[in-house]
């Protein structure tokens, strides 16, 4: 995969060139691409998580794919700006370290980490797996909005959120939220707010696979029963 890469400002200094062509082979997301640049330029590797990418003239996000023939611009945070929060949807195993590293910095005195796991039971039923489906683009946009809002409400915090998509077995991690702050109270509060808001408004749906019973979309069946027309009326739960 031949990709033209341009480096600006501190990224250029760390890599020692203003542009180059990388033949990486395959299709990658931004995080894998930045690691590949770090493998090629060791000085860059220590700062890769601070960099922002643009692909073919548009800012990249976690769901962006980098393909053969693309032009990728690598740039540091703008002067006076703050680093974009780390927010992603993944179809492979989530990385706790990636979320923690995204929020760690010298002024942080505490990091609170929330892990959502697949448990083996729910409502008296034995569960074998969960299946998560998302409207990716809107889910990422809403997760960023939630993280930005929470960081504004709790000054001094930096927050990362990662959610798994696809089929997960019992014990696997479905969601990671990490929040750093000067003190633990703010870190705890921020991580709690983010996970609660993700569950309330992000378009991610969960289907439960049960042992000895039918699969079911969580919260859909009960809502449907409550919303059926009754004696000429339409009632919502």
Considering the chains and any ligands shown, give keywords for the structure:
single chain, 237 residues, alpha+beta, Ubiquitin-like (UB roll), Aldehyde Oxidoreductase, domain 3, 2 domains, five-stranded mixed beta sheet, five-stranded antiparallel beta sheet, 7 helices, 16 strands, globular, disordered C terminus
Overview of this structure, please?
The protein has two domains: 2-75, Roll (Ubiquitin-like (UB roll)), CATH 3.10.20.30; 86-221, Aldehyde Oxidoreductase, domain 3 (Alpha-Beta Complex). Helix 5 packs antiparallel against helix 6. The longest helix has 18 residues, at 136-153. The chain has 237 residues and is α+β, with helices and mostly antiparallel strands. It has helices at 9-15, 30-40, 42-45, 96-103, 136-153, 184-201, 220-227; strands spanning 2-7, 19-23, 52-55, 58-59, 71-75, 86-90, 110-117, 121-122, 125-134, 158-164, 166-169, 173-181, 204-210, 216-217, 229-230, 233-234. The model is unreliable at 222-237 (pLDDT under 50). The N and C termini lie far apart (52 Å). The strands form four sheets. The protein has a five-stranded mixed sheet with strand order 2-1-5-3-4. Strands 8, 9, 11, 13 and 14 form a five-stranded antiparallel sheet that branches. It is built from seven helices and 16 strands.
């Amino acid at each position: 995969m031949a990709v033209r890469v341009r480096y600006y400002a501190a990224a250029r200094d760390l890599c020692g060139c203003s542009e180059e062509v990388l033949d990486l082979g395959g299709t990658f997301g931004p995080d894998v691409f930045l690691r590949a640049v770090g493998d090629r330029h060791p000085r860059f590797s220590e700062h890769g998580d601070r960099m922002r990418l643009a692909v073919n003239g548009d800012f990249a996000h976690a769901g962006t794919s980098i393909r053969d023939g693309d032009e990728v611009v690598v740039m540091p945070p703008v002067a006076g700006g703050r680093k974009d929060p780390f927010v992603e949807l993944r179809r492979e195993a989530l990385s706790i370290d990636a979320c923690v590293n995204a929020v760690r910095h010298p002024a942080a005195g505490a990091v609170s980490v929330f892990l959502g796991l697949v448990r083996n039971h729910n409502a008296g039923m034995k569960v074998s797996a969960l299946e998560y489906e998302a409207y990716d683009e809107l889910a990422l946009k809403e997760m960023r909005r939630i993280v930005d809002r929470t960081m504004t409400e709790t000054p001094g915090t930096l927050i990362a959120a990662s959610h798994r998509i696809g089929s997960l077995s019992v014990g696997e991690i479905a969601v990671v939220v990490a929040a750093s702050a000067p003190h633990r109270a703010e870190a705890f509060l921020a991580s709690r707010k983010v996970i609660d808001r993700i569950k309330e408004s992000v378009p991610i749906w969960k289907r439960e696979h049960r042992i000895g019973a039918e699969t079911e979309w969580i919260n859909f069946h009960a809502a449907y029963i409550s919303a059926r027309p009754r004696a000429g009326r339409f009632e919502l739960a």
